[in-house]
Predict the structure.
Amino acid sequence: MDWRVVDLGNMDPALTAATDEAVLTFRSEGYAQNTLSFYSRDRPTVSLGYFEKAAECIDLDLCHDMDIQVVRRLSGGSAIFTDPGQIIYTVAIEADLVPENPKDSYPIICGGVVNALRSLGIEAEHKPLNDVVVNGRKISGSAQTRKRGVVLQHGTVIVDSDLGQMMRVIRPRPGKPRGVEGMTSIVRESGRRVDMDQVKTALVVGFEMAFGVKIRKGALCDDERELAKRLSEEKYGKEVFTFQR
C-alpha cells in the first residue's frame, strides 16, 4: 500500500495524542494509507506512557507551577518532555512491514530518524531499545504500540528544546543518564539554526530509505479529524484519563 506524509503543524497536546489514535484506527480499518505524520506541541508538555503513574515519574507540582500540560498517550514507555522546539513523528503502518518483536522493529523504524540526521550532517545511531543518540547523547526517543494489525511508533526529534526544563520535571529513572549532558539537539550538534521544514523533509527521505518506499504528500480525511476531535474532548483532554493511575 502507498504511504502518505501528513504535516499537522503546531497542535494542542491532547489533540496530538487523539490524532495518533485516530490515524491508527483508520489505518486498521483499511480507510487510510500507511502514514508518516509530523506535529509539534504548541506548549511545553509531558507525555505519559499509557501504563505510568504520573506522580512517580514527573514532578506534578512543578508542572503546575510552570504551566506544563500533562497528557497520556496510547503507547507504553516512559514519560517524555516535549515543547515547540521538537518535531514529533508518528508512523502508523501495517504490522507485517516490521518484525513482531519490538527489539527487531525499533531499529528499522528508528532507522528513518538516523538516516535523516545523517543527511543533515549529524552522525546519529540507533541505541537499543528505542533511542537515537549522537556521541552517546540522546537526540530522539520513541514508543510503540501494536493494535488491530497496525504498528504505531511515535517519537521525538529534538531540534532546539529547553533541555533544562526537561530535566527539572522528569524524575530520574534507574539506568538513565541524568542531566542536560545526557541529551542533545540538532542545533547543538550542527552549531547553527535549523529550519523545521528542512528537518521534516530530511525525515521523509530518511523513512523512504528505511522502508524502500515513496512517500507522497497527503492529509487527514474529514472523518479522521472528526474522530481526533472527539477523542480529544472525551478522552485525552480529560483529567480522569490522564491521571487514572
The chain has a mean pLDDT of 95.
